[in-house]
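call fold(seq) -> tokens
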Amino acid sequence: MSTSPSPGQAIKVAVVGDIDEDAALVVPRATAGTLDDIAVIFSAGRYYAIDNTCTHEQTSLAQGWIESGCVECPLHAAMFRLADGAALTQPATRGVGVHTVEVVGDELMLTPNPERLA
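ret:
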């Protein structure tokens, strides 16, 4: 992994098979150049990338329960949709930032959301 990409620059974060179904890999904010760590999640055959910190409490969403295109915060069970980061249940009232992750060959390439850069 490289450090602090330029805006719009993709960085390699893993290869296909590194992340189990309904599991996550955390990309540190220092590597991504973002305001928050990023959770790269594999669920239902798709890869997603969201800010890793729950907007209700300072808890890692990568440690939550992942299924059916959502992640549930392990602390207070707030649910977030992986596709767009929307908060679906209380106690969270704000969604989380989303980023772009693409499969190029067998590499997972993360492009941080320009609005979430540090």
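Helices lie at 29-32.
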